[in-house]
Design goal:
The complex is a heterodimer of chains A (322) and B (328).
Chain A: H1 2-26, H2 31-74, H3 79-84, H4 95-104, H5 109-141, H6 147-157, H7 162-176, H8 183-186, H9 193-206, H10 209-217, H11 222-233, H12 235-251, H13 254-259, H14 268-281, H15 287-307, H16 309-321
Helix pairs in contact in A: 1-2, 4-15, 5-9, 5-12, 6-9, 12-16, 14-15
Chain B: H1 2-16, H2 31-45, H3 48-69, E1 71-74, E2 84-87, H4 91-97, H5 100-133, H6 136-146, H7 148-151, H8 154-165, H9 172-178, H10 191-216, H11 220-228, H12 233-261, H13 265-271, H14 284-295, H15 298-327
Antiparallel strand pairs in B: 1-2
Helix pairs in contact in B: 3-15, 4-15, 5-10, 5-12, 8-10, 8-13, 10-12, 12-15, 14-15
């Protein structure tokens, strides 16, 4: 990251040098004049197109942030103000009242949903990360019978659309007794071909095979090498895989909808959906609840993503290698 | 073969470098072979937990799905007793191939995907080029703001936009009617525009990040060379930067088309606001969900899933071929 910033910044100054070189070739003039002329013309020309660029970026920024702003503003309003006041600006501040009614409604079911989401995301991501790292490490560092076949299946499975797996998985979960239990949300999450692929790619770059040889000569066993040496080198990959899955799990919708029946096991996204659905055909107006609930369900994600920016950015880079 | 070579090497090593005996392990020449194979097994064992889970939760469902699609379950005439399950061959597929409701939903979503994916790509590219054109310090600030939609969970984003579109709570309808535009975002003509805008909003930040990353990898000297040749900044963007990120564009485009064909969550949420416009069979995934859990015909739903997967597969191959052709 820092390396690119250095290399990216330097050509911008080079470019002015290049322009002056260009000019000098066309119109040879005394050096003094040429320099003065160049700087004024350059700043004028660049200023013009720069304004256009900045305006474009500001418009995109407003478009990106506007809906988030609306969510924040709306969650501070009373039910009545939601319909009567300016949608994009604050009215009577009642965020805390909204929060208390959100968390007390139906014996605090919203809190339970938040807990479920957290549990599924954490438990699923931990298993997902450990299993993917181990598998990726095994595939990257060792050669063994069946390795090529395994890789073939992993790459091939990228092409299987999720829609193909949902109905048969439902049947399978019913058979295994996992349907409508928390395990349906946690255990299948452990096994992701894409995460294994990421782990393999990353291990190839991060763990030198000489290190393994050295550790072996020192008498370390294969498992010990993995847990005590390689694992530390794979922290970044692990954090990335963890984060990507955590976010995916938090946002999951179709899976929970198919595999869970009881409202007490729902993750928060499914719960909010059920309120949105009821909001239209019941006498209670749940709009305010959905809005405040949406904000509460978003805040952990935003904090996590900003705190761990480095990791999901590297995940993006790894993903684009594919 | 290799062990004998190693032995010779270690012997040579001993002869040539007697001062460093610690490096060579001549004594372990014969046990080394079995040690290697144990090491291989241990290496393979790292992948076993994954392989077991992969077989159970990916391979097995595919097989179960294929098997289910070949059977039919029938309840006896009056609905008494357990349903009888019989082998139906390709009946479910034959039915699926002429199912008007299913193919209408497929057409609807395909048209949407063909329009929205390029739109998202072009807008993301414009955004990436704009970010690439400003100083790094400014770019970093904008980048964080532009990534806000990526941090908001998809379901929450859909809800926010549903409310923004709503004529009672949202600001959009009053603003547009102020300009004399009477827009109903949930009407049949507007619904795909509404969903498309939501998809665009959610996707451009992330796509911009990928494309911006690809742009950063372009050697800056090329731009300088082009400037020396008198190319304008716009020309540089179109003739150098765009071709450089083409691979990333194609890749992200392919992935979004595959994802878009399976769209489920957004229309399902919109359906809770306007069930008249968004029918229960609006997209192929909704058809399958409905068939499996409302109608209760899991066999037919499994067959429909396979047809959808086949369509997605064929679409991927066609797009891949087309982009290859464009490249060469």
């Amino acid at each position: 990251m820092t390396l690119t910033s250095v290399t990216a910044d330097s050509p911008r100054t080079d470019e002015e040098v290049q322009k002056s070189v260009l000019k000098s070739r066309r119109r040879p003039r005394p050096k003094k004049f040429r320099e003065a002329d160049d700087s004024s013309e350059l700043s004028g020309k660049r200023g013009g197109s720069r304004v256009v660029v900045i305006i474009g970026l500001v418009l995109f920024a407003l478009y990106s942030i506007g809906p988030a702003w609306w969510l924040i503003v709306s969650s501070t309003k009373t039910k009545e103000d939601l319909y009567t006041t300016d949608a994009m600006w604050f009215a009577n501040f009642s965020l805390f009242d909204n929060l208390s009614s959100l968390f007390t409604y139906q014996d605090g079911i919203f809190g339970l949903w938040m807990w479920n989401s957290t549990l599924y995301a954490f438990a699923g991501s931990i298993g997902h990360t450990l299993i993917s790292l181990a598998a990726g490490y095994g595939l990257a560092m060792y050669s063994f019978r069946g390795k090529g076949t395994t890789m073939g299946f992993i790459i091939g499975s990228f092409l299987i659309p999720g829609a193909l797996l949902t109905i048969p998985s439902y049947l399978l979960f019913v058979q295994l007794g996992m349907y409508d239990t928390i395990w349906a949300m946690i255990i299948p999450a452990f096994f992701s071909p894409f995460a294994v692929y990421l782990a393999k790619i990353y291990t190839e770059g991060a763990v030198p095979s000489e290190l393994l040889e050295a550790a072996r000569i020192d008498g370390a066993g294969e498992y010990r090498i993995f847990f005590q040496i390689a694992f530390r080198l794979l922290t970044t990959a692990g954090a990335t895989i963890f984060l990507l899955h955590f976010v995916g799990s938090w946002n999951a919708f179709f899976g929970p909808m198919v595999f869970l029946r009881g409202a007490d096991k729902w993750p928060v996204m499914l719960g909010l959906y059920s309120w949105l659905q009821r909001g239209t055909d019941s006498t209670v107006d749940l709009t305010g609840m959905v809005i405040t609930g949406s904000l509460v369900a978003t805040i952990p994600m935003v904090i996590l993503m900003i705190a761990m920016q480095r990791y999901w950015r590297s995940g993006v880079a790894m993903g684009s290698l594919k | 073969m290799s062990s004998s070579l190693e032995v010779r090497n270690t012997l040579d090593g001993k002869k040539q470098e007697p001062s460093r005996p610690g490096r060579t392990q001549g004594s372990s020449a014969s046990p080394r072979l079995s040690w290697r194979s144990i090491q291989r097994i241990k290496g393979a064992s790292f992948t076993w937990p994954f392989v077991v889970g992969f077989v159970v939760f990916t391979i097995l469902p595919v097989i179960v799905g294929l098997a289910q699609s070949l059977y039919a379950s029938k309840t006896s005439g009056l609905g008494f007793g357990a349903p009888t399950i019989s082998f139906a061959g390709f009946d479910n597929f034959a039915r699926g191939l002429v199912d008007v409701v299913f193919w209408e939903s497929m057409l609807r979503v395909s048209i949407y995907a063909v329009v929205i994916v390029p739109v998202i790509q072009v807008v993301s590219l414009v955004l990436a080029l704009l970010i690439d054109a400003v100083q790094r310090r400014i770019a970093n600030r904008f980048r964080l703001i532009l990534l806000v939609p990526y941090m908001i969970p998809g379901i929450v984003a859909t809800m926010i936009w549903i409310y923004l579109y709503s004529p009672v709570v949202g600001p959009l309808t009053p603003v547009l009617s102020f300009f004399g535009l009477d827009v109903d975002f949930f009407s049949g003509e507007m619904i795909w525009v509404s969903i498309g805008n939501l998809a665009l909003w959610g996707a451009i930040g992330f796509n911009m990040l990928i494309l911006y990353g690809a742009l950063q990898a372009v050697p800056r000297e090329i731009f300088d060379a082009a400037r020396v040749d008198g190319a304008s900044e716009f020309r540089i963007a179109m003739s150098i930067k765009v071709p450089y990120v083409q691979t990333s564009l194609v890749l992200t485009g392919l992935l979004s088309i595959i994802g878009t064909l399976q769209i489920f969550a957004e229309p399902t949420l919109f359906r809770s606001i306007s069930p008249e416009t968004i029918t229960k069979d609006f997209t192929p995934s909704m058809v399958i969900y409905n068939q499996a859990f409302q109608v209760g015909n899991l066999n037919y739903a499994a067959a429909q899933s396979i047809i959808l997967a086949a369509v997605v597969g064929v679409a991927s191959v066609i797009i891949y071929r087309l982009t290859k052709k464009v490249d060469s």
